[in-house]
Design a protein that fits this description.
Length: 658
């Protein structure tokens, strides 16, 4: 039985030919009685209903990072390139999951309607499995409306001869209500958590169901779907409005209440083990915000993870992310954060860089190091001292800027260093082997440290035919394991895909509260928790002028979200649900926008200078320039319904402006 359970989990989270399986009726493979009388067959069918829960492939297949204003992916073969240039239409196949998720929804009904026929499964387990497929049904509808807006809502199994061409899209709010209904029904028959049986980590539980409601209701309360008059003509052929154009403050109250239910579990049920991850609560003696921020992305099933994927899918995606975001040579080094993201990070004193009291300096080389650059007082003038310092960096005992690094990166908050690899920074994810580290350094800079060279002619930005480099002059460090050996691609642990973590729920809660009660004390309480873990002063200490001001607090909350959840896929959806992605480029000499996915995107000048003579002292690299001009039209707030689906039925209307 143990071997069977392990095999089931492998199939469950391994994306085991889901498209092919879901295309088939159960009796296409075996007789109907054979499938539903066998526990093995029934549980394999359930595993394949799960299989459409796709891993986050943020560097390649998923467009959420590369099509947002926080990042650029260098490769023209990936989907984000064409989308950013506006080269797509209703016949394009960019991230087309529409049919897949409907097949999975259909399979959930087949499973729910037939599992009672299996005499080899206990009644208790049947109840649990039915709850799981209800969750999956609601979750797939959530993935559909997140990407496509209101969709055709099928609430029960349909015969093969159903009048499919008469099925129209349901209003967005009706879709949201049904998703919440599925989450409520599912959680009644699911445990609070799975810590008592770690074999089932990754399956839904009560916390996961409530977290999905928090996310869905926050989405529904936001300006895109709450009083958006630009969707006034978004209607079915019979005139049914698909979007609510009248603002309803109560939606924010529902979103806040849903988020608070998750928070209440964290605070009232210690056995749920749900909280913000801190390293000193997991074996270390002292709290280290930088180490906490690095490890929360890497430690599988840590206390902050609510929903995710482990094993074959999650592990391979994280390994691939590290290959794509770690600097060349030997890696692909093309996941490039934009200057807008870099500028969003706070200073160590908790102030934004544009605050006159922040201490931010945008040019010149730092003449002194940060407070945490060498806590063990290593003598880095010796080979042994360099190895010890590199060991400290890889163990996250050391972080922050060094003397001689560009002032723009000096004295920034720990989340900056946990997320961004900038020019001249010592590369963490290489062993403390002098030969391996010098492999990443140009002649004349082989000092044993292995600093990333992102300038023109540097080891990670070669000229000529070398195309694997960051176009922004930065690389993503978030979700990179500093203890990995990216010279030889060796990984010290197994990783997972994190879909939802507790910090997101806290941010949902304070964002919702601010919209109807900006003086609510919980805003400060939970915002301070996020800032404390990040190692920076509370927002009302660092920026007291915003207290109680809904508009200012909203701007700071969205910035906090931009920082805390950067490079996790959230920014794409946040700027869209808040109706900010079409913020126009005014053509200024510098980028003053906080939002906007069209127009010019900015970074360091990776094409400046003479590649034969450039080195770390070359200041021309640090000029902020536009690396790309993107196209964003209002149509792009939603993916188009695939034209093949539109052609099948005149009852299905296309999304606005397509």
């Amino acid at each position: 039985m143990k071997k069977y359970i392990n095999l089931l989990l492998f199939v469950l989270f391994g994306l085991f030919s889901c498209a092919d399986f879901l295309d088939k009726q159960p009796d296409d493979m075996k007789t109907d009685d054979m499938v539903w009388s066998s526990r093995v067959e029934v549980e394999q069918y359930l595993a394949n209903v799960y299989a459409a829960v796709l891993p986050h492939n943020l560097h390649q297949d998923d467009p959420w990072v590369g099509c947002s204003d926080e990042c650029d992916l260098s490769w023209t073969v990936y989907r984000t390139y064409g989308i950013n240039l506006g080269n797509w239409d209703t016949n394009s196949t960019f991230y087309d999951k529409y049919a897949l998720w409907y097949r999975a929804i259909r399979a959930s009904f087949v499973f729910e309607n037939n599992i009672d026929r299996c005499g080899e499964i206990s009644n208790d387990l049947k109840i649990q499995y039915k709850a799981e497929v209800k969750f999956l049904r609601g979750y797939y509808y959530w993935l559909l409306i997140r990407q496509y807006g209101p969709v055709v809502l099928i609430k029960e199994a349909q015969p093969s001869n159903a009048p499919w061409t008469t099925f129209a899209r349901a209003p967005f709010d009706e879709c949201v209500d049904y998703i919440c209904e599925m989450m409520d029904e599912a959680e009644k028959d699911l445990p609070l958590h799975w810590w008592h049986d770690a074999r089932w980590l990754g399956k839904p539980n009560k916390i996961v169901c409530k977290a999905v409601k928090s996310i869905v209701l926050t989405f529904a309360a936001s300006p895109q779907w709450n009083g958006n008059k630009e969707y006034a003509d978004f209607k079915n052929p019979d005139g049914t409005p698909l979007a609510n154009t009248i603002y309803d403050e109560n939606k924010w109250k529902k979103a806040a209440a849903a988020s608070k239910e998750v928070i209440d579990i964290a605070e009232k049920y210690p056995e749920a083990q749900l909280r913000l991850y801190k390293n000193n609560e997991h074996g270390d003696e002292a709290f280290n915000p930088y180490k906490s921020l690095v490890d929360v992305q890497l430690k599988s099933w840590n206390c902050e993870v609510i929903f995710g994927r482990y094993g074959r899918g999650g592990e391979s995606e994280t390994n691939a992310w590290m290959v794509h975001s770690s600097p060349s040579p030997n890696n692909l080094g093309g996941v490039g954060p934009t200057q807008r993201l870099v500028d969003a990070f706070l200073m160590e004193n908790g102030k934004p860089i544009e605050d006159p009291g922040s201490g931010y300096v945008s040019s010149g080389f730092a003449t002194s190091p940060g407070n945490h650059w060498n806590p063990n007082n290593r003598n880095i003038g010796t080979e042994q001292g360099r190895k010890e310092m590199i060991s400290d960096i890889r163990k996250c005992d050391t972080w922050g800027h060094w003397t001689g690094e560009w002032n723009m990166y000096a004295n920034r908050e720990p989340r900056f260093y946990a997320s961004i690899l900038y020019n001249k920074r010592v590369i963490p994810q290489i062993p403390d082997d002098i030969v391996k580290r010098n492999y990443y350094s140009s002649p004349g800079q082989k000092d044993g440290f292995g600093r990333v060279e992102l300038y023109y002619g540097g080891m990670s930005r070669k000229s000529g035919s070398h195309t694997f480099y960051s176009k922004t002059g930065y690389l993503a460090f978030k979700k990179n394991d500093p203890m990995a050996d990216m010279r030889d691609r060796k990984y010290p642990q197994r990783y997972m895909n994190v879909f939802t973590r507790y910090a997101e729920i806290l941010l949902n809660y304070i964002e919702a509260l601010n919209e109807y009660n900006p003086t609510h004390p919980d805003i400060r309480k939970y915002w301070d928790m996020i800032r404390e873990r990040a190692g920076v002063p509370g927002v009302f200490v660092a920026s007291p002028q915003i207290a109680g001001d809904k508009d200012l607090q909203r701007a700071f909350i969205l910035r906090e979200r931009q920082i805390e959840l950067c490079l996790e896929g959230d920014r794409y959806f946040t700027t869209r649900r808040r109706w900010l992605a079409h913020t126009a480029d005014e053509g200024d000499a510098v980028d003053n926008r906080k939002y906007g996915d069209g127009g010019r995107m900015w970074g360091m000048d990776v094409n400046a200078g003479d590649p034969a003579s450039n080195n770390f002292s070359f200041t021309g690299f640090y000029n902020v320039v536009s690396f790309e001009e993107r196209v964003f039209r209002k149509a792009f707030y939603l993916f188009p319904i695939p034209q093949a689906e539109i052609d099948k039925s005149k009852s299905i209307v296309q999304n606005p402006w397509w």
